[in-house]
Every structure is written in C-alpha cells, then in structure tokens.
Amino acid sequence: MTGVRLTELVEAAGCAAKIAPGELAGVLSGLPRLDAPELVVGFDASDDACVWDLGDGRGLIATTDFFPPMVDDPFLFGQVAATNALSDVYAMGGRPALALNLLCFPNCLGIEVAGQILAGGAETCRRAGCVVAGGHSINDHEPKYGLAVTGFVALDERLENGGARAGDALVLTKALGTGILTTAHKGGLLDDAGVRVATDSMTTLNEAPIRLARELGCWPHAATDVTGFSLMGHSCEMAEASGVTLEIDAAAVPVMARAREMAALGLIPAGAYRNRDFFGPRVGLDEALPLDLTDVLFDPQTSGGLLLALGEKDAERLVDALRAEGLPAAVIGRARCRAEKSVLVR
C-alpha cells in the first residue's frame, strides 16, 4: 500500500456516502410490507434499528452500518466505522452484544491493511463489551467497512424516534462538524492536528449518555443518533414521528473547532447539499443565521452524538454528568406543539 491513502480511493467518505435521503425515501416507500407481531420497531419512523420482541420482556435490537473511509489510517478507520455501527444500538436504549464484520476491500491494498481495519473494529467492540463473532468480506474497488450488530434492551426502556413530547428539552451529546473537517483534511487544507477533534469524537462510543441516563433516573422520551442525514435531517425525523416541532437554538449547538471556518471556505461534503435539498423545506431557518453555521447544521455526521428528548430538569442533570465525563453535551432547544415546520432554528 506504499504511497496509497485510503481516502484517495473513495468518491465519498463516511456517512456522507449515504444514498440521498429523497431517493432513499422513494425506494423504501415502494417496498412490500412483511410485518410480524414480534416486530415492535421497524423502519416506519426512520428509527436507528429494528426491535424484535423475545417474549420475556426483552427486545432484540438488530442493525447494520458500513461506509468508505474518511481517514487514511486503517486502524483508525476500523475504530470509527465500528463506533458508528454500535451507536444505533445505544440510540435504541440498548446494549450491543454481538457483531459481524462487513468488509469490502480493493486488491490494490496489501492484505495487512485489511487486518488493521478489522483490528480497529475489534478494539472498539472490546471497549463496548461486544463480541465479534465473524463476518463477510468481498473484493471491491473502494474500501468499505462496518458491522452488523445485535443488541438487547428491556422493552419498557426501548427508545424510539417518536416519543418526544411538547415541553421536552433537546440534548445533543457531541459537537457537529465531522463531515466538513474530514472533507477539509482530505483536500489538504487541514492538518492531522486540525482534524483530530473530529477523529476523537468519531471514536467516542455513545455509551455514556445511555448509562448515565439510567443511573440518574432521567430516561429520555425519544432518541436518535445524528449521522449522515445531519442534525437537521434527524431532527425532522424525530419531530415528524413524535407529532411535534423541534425548536433549536443555533447558538447553543456545539460545533467543532474550525468547522465553521472550513465551511466558510466552501469545504462542504456533497451529502450536506443533498440534506439541505431534501430536509430544507421542512426546516424554518432564521434569515439572520450565517451560511457557514447553517452548513454545519446540515453537515452529514459520521459517528455523531445522540439527540435526546427528555424533561427539562432531567436534561440539565444529564448534561452536567456528560460534561463531567468530558463530552461536549448541551441543551440545544425544546420540543413544542406541532407547527407548520418540523424544525425551527433561531
């Protein structure tokens, strides 16, 4: 692999490689329905994973996620991809238990690179207490990696997109900007130190918000992880599934260092434009907001944080606990009675 950078082999990186949300919605709407009474959460409300009733008070969570690299270091790529895949289980309120590797690998790279990618994923799963029990690999012209993950949740604690209530506070557990910063790094306008804030965030498990919410007794009413469809896209999905409008204070949203600077230079991933095209009509943006900030709000996140809806006092307690563990969590807004727009940004 001498002289070959992983990011040079791909057209799109990380969650920015997702199919455009409008195109995906059209495909999913035409699929035949194969419902079962045990399926308590499917894809109707764009939830992060499905949940199957095991009949003993527990639900089995099943999800999968994989994508092309957004970093050049193979081990780090494996860590980021695994962290991102495990996040879906945490977003449902659950615990990841079992994972299978999904690896697409080009012949132009040495096989030792594949080993490093898998080792990064295994290290992340070890930290999460999740067993890697096998997987599948194929040849491909672009490298891609991720996991199929199985987890478990008590059914009376499962979290979904659709539980937000008017009056709830909204908590975001990680800062935004991964898509913009990794795009700038790929373009050579941001050095390794500059992009480290993004890679550190992308390898941080979303375990802490769920663990602390349980320990503090401030369980959320709704949750989702913020990934390729951006904060705006995932906020729209939560609002519409819950029958409310989410009102977001743009100044309160945590943003990674230099993300707005890079956005102002035009270093915007293509996925951000797709997100704005599809979700933009459902979002009411204050005209006074600067373009670089709204670009961050539509930025596709790779291994982003959780967006949680919970009572105001519980939200403040949870944010304090998360910040004590070093996470840049913040209360970023409120849920209110349904208005014309799904999301309002002030």
TrEMBL record:
It catalyses: hydrogenselenide + ATP + H2O = selenophosphate + AMP + phosphate + 2 H(+). Mg(2+) binds at residues 48, 88, 225. It comes from the Bacteria. Its cofactor is Mg(2+). GO terms for molecular function: selenide, water dikinase activity. ATP binds at residues 18, 45-47, 65, 88, 135-137. The keyword ATP-binding applies. The keyword Signal does not apply. Its EC number is 2.7.9.3. It is an enzyme of class 2 (transferase). Belongs to the selenophosphate synthase 1 family. Class I subfamily. Homodimer. This is Selenide, water dikinase. The gene is selD.
